[in-house]
Amino acid sequence: MPYQGDKWVNLPGKLKCCSTGNDGALWGVNRNNEIYVYRKANGWNLVSGRLKQMSVGNVYCVWGVNSSNEIYFREGTSPADPDGTTWTKMDGSLKYISCGADGTVWGVNNNDDIYCRVGACMQNPKGTSWQQTEGKANTIGVGNLYTVWVTNASNEIYVRTGMSPQDPNGNGWTKVDGALKQISCGENGAVVGSNCSDEIYAREGVSYQNPMGTAWTHLPGKLNYADCGSESKICGVNDAEDIYVWTT
Questions:
Q1: Which of 119, 132, 192, 202 is most buried, most CB within 10 Å of its CB?
Q2: In this structure, what CATH number is given to the domain that contains residue 29?
Q3: Calpha distance 175→156 (Å, rounded)
Q4: From the first residue on, what is the mean pLDDT of each consecutive set of 10 residues in the chain (248 residues)?
Q5: Cα–Cα distance between 78 and 81 in angstroms, integer?
Q6: What's the structural domain count of the chain?
Q7: Residue 22: which residues within 8 A CB-CB, separation 6 or more?
Q8: What is the four-CA torsion angle of 39, 246, 94, 101, rounded to 10 degrees?
Q9: Domain for residue 3, yes or no?
């Protein structure tokens, strides 16, 4: 059980949401929609632009949406320059977005319609177009091509099935036990979310062979927004906008 123990460490600053990649890349936005990237040497660094929500797959894969539901991709990020250079406006309109460590990108729009980014991968991180899939969701989590979970307006949880390189959109949604208001996925089957009481849960046993996993593990603490890049890379903010990261 990799999620055992109380390992939360409080970082300085205030954010309304944050996101971490499988490599520990860490970004977030505050209540004014200002954007920050975390540098271990000197803490939070303000980045140009405004976003209301963002997602980090890894240092090279950073996406976000603004208050007008415009979609942006961060150019030029690297381990040597995690801030990157500029934001590129992408086609489409989304209220919530998520990207995985392999460059896979999904999102939901104001009507809770669900979209997959066609062609998005590390070799072509911006992809080519958006493809709608059936179903409704208000938050979505992407770990990689094979790990996509959503929550809907009723806090029901679903996992996408049938994805493959030939069919990245998959072929169906399977309902999972439990109730969450928000969800995130990372590499190697990591799935973390928070419920309406801000209680934090992680899904055990998720794998390619068993995409639904086996059971929910209750993590200590309370978070209004939780995000994971892997089982050991988890971050979140509470209702006071305090920032926490899970350490190993």
A1: 192
A2: 2.130.10.30
A3: 7
A4: 73 97 96 96 94 97 98 96 97 98 97 97 96 97 96 98 90 97 96 98 93 95 96 96 92
A5: 5
A6: 1
A7: 57, 58, 101, 186, 187, 229, 230, 233
A8: 80
A9: no
Residue 199 CB neighbours (<10 A):
15
Q: Is residue 108 part of a domain?
A: yes
Place of tokens 């979310």: 193
Contacts of 40 (CB under 8 A, 6+ apart): none
End-to-end CA distance of the chain: 13
Residue 1 lies in a domain: no
Q: Which residues pair with 217 in a beta bridge?
A: 202
Cβ neighbours, 10 Å, residue 2: 13
| Counts of helices then strands in the chain (DSSP H, E) | 0, 24
* Best CA proximity match to 101, nearest among 217, 38, 190, 17: 190
Q: Is 140 exposed, middle or buried (0-12, 13-18, 19+ CB in 10 A)?
A: buried
> In angstroms, rounded to a whole number, what is the distance separating the alpha carbons of residues 230 and 197?
23
For residue 118, the enclosing domain spans 8-246
pLDDT at 83: 95
User: 171 Cβ partners below 8 Å, 6+ apart?
Assistant: 161, 162
**Claim: this prediction has a pTM higher than 0.90:** yes
CB 241 within 8 A of CB 31: yes
Distance between CA atoms of residues 216 and 200, nearest Å: 10
Structure tokens at 133: 């899939």
Residue 188 placed within a domain: yes
